[in-house]
Write a structure and sequence with these properties.
About 35% of the residues lie in helices and about 20% in strands. It is an alpha/beta fold. The chain has a domain at about 105-175. The longest helix is centred in the middle third of the chain and has 18 residues, at about 190-205. The structure holds adenosine-5'-triphosphate. Adenosine-5'-triphosphate binds near residues 63 and 77. It is a peripheral membrane protein.
Length: about 325
């Protein structure tokens, strides 16, 4: 079990290492019959080798599109219209675990065969492939791995398929792992095991991991740093401790508060008031302002730039600008 303090130390160490991915002013757009939309907007980010970066945010924030940009697998109707993504990974050094695991498994091959095929391309000798495949199944917490080895995707539950995809992904011996909601179909025990595995891999093999998730517990346990996305932008980024214990952006605060509430009172589903904005029509200014009861006048007028909280902690909120007075917009006032 890793303590928060140890993980924090590890986070700082990790950040001192080399940059693995650099994103500079990235815009991703879709042309739809209704017009052009920009679900990822002017996004800049650096990820270090061996780091686990969790990307948190509600549905539609642009998390998956960002992750797909890292893999070079944007949908055919999406375009990078501005900005740059550079990284130090070859195509074969990347692996991705996507939200719908069953889509990514070959229905004509047993799980074991699929892992062994991947091991072949990773240069593992024929005589070692079976035992390595079994080890991988065990590592991804597949009980009864001998049975799973021979099963086909249609015989697996969502949770087992998710872990099978993870085993195939790890058979690639990747240096970069993009894990998009890898724990959604898992129960609490298996979620914990998978998260432990990500942490172990980051320590043992310096695997760089982008963990896209709605799941705050997963981010809390696994991540070195957390980036919070809202309306296509990163609105706060910092070490796990900074974001979780000293959140600055009102959206991050609301996200954490809603999660806290859910934990304390499991019977009630508490979410942030209002709905996330549509990328076709993001609100002017700070896109969260229309859902923020404490929004400043300035929030409705101009988009806040990323501002420094500490060397490792940044947030895009006018609350950090000394010129901005907290002048709450009058009830019923116009929302820019
Ligand atoms: N192929 C597409 N065509 C048009 N719009 C798309 C397409 N793919 C994604 N979008 C839109 O881009 C926005 C961001 O999508 P994305 O999948 O990145 O969100 P997300 O933060 O990962 O959400 P979720 O957690 O629900 O997966 C959404 O509004 C989505 O509707």
């Amino acid at each position: 079990m890793i303590t928060a303090q140890a993980a924090g130390k590890r986070g700082e160490e990790t950040m001192r290492r080399n940059t693995a991915i650099s994103v500079d002013g990235l815009w991703v757009s879709f042309t739809t019959p209704e017009g052009i939309m920009h679900p990822v907007r002017n996004l800049s980010l650096e990820v270090c080798h061996g780091e686990i970066l969790a990307i948190l945010g509600e549905s539609g924030a642009g998390k998956s599109l960002l992750a797909k940009t890292f893999m070079g697998i944007l949908p055919s109707d999406a375009q990078v219209v501005k900005g740059e993504v550079s990284d130090s990974f070859g195509f074969e050094e990347r692996a991705m675990v996507l939200q719908d695991p069953k889509k990514f498994l070959d229905p004509t091959l047993s799980i074991g065969k699929q892992i062994m095929e991947t091991l072949k391309y990773s240069g593992v000798r024929r005589s070692q492939r079976r035992s390595e495949a079994m080890k991988l199944l065990e590592r991804v917490a597949m009980d009864d791995s001998e049975k799973r080895f021979h099963q086909y995707v249609h015989e697996l539950s969502g949770g087992l398929a998710q872990r099978a995809v993870m085993a195939v992904a790890l058979a690639k011996k990747p240096k970069l792992l993009i894990a998009d909601e890898p724990t959604t179909a898992l129960d609490e025990k298996n979620e914990e095991k998978l998260i432990d595995l990500l942490v172990e891999l980051s320590e043992e093999t310096a695997l760089t991991t982008i963990l896209v998730t709605h799941n705050l517990q997963a981010a809390r346990k696994a991540a070195h740093r957390i980036a919070v996305m809202y309306a296509g932008r990163i609105i706060e980024i910092g070490t796990k401790e900074e974001v979780l214990t000293q959140p600055v952006h009102p959206y991050t605060q609301a996200l954490l508060a809603s999660d806290q509430f859910r934990k304390n009172d499991k019977g009630r589903l508490v979410t942030i008031q209002g709905i996330p904005p549509c990328p076709m029509n993001f609100p002017k200014g700070d896109a969260f302002s229309v859902r923020n009861p404490d929004a400043l006048v300035m929030d409705f007028l101009e988009e806040p730039p990323m501002m420094k909280v500490s060397d490792t902690h940044y947030a895009a909120t006018w609350l950090l600008d000394p010129r901005c007075k907290r002048s709450k917009i009058a009830e019923g006032g116009t929302h820019g």
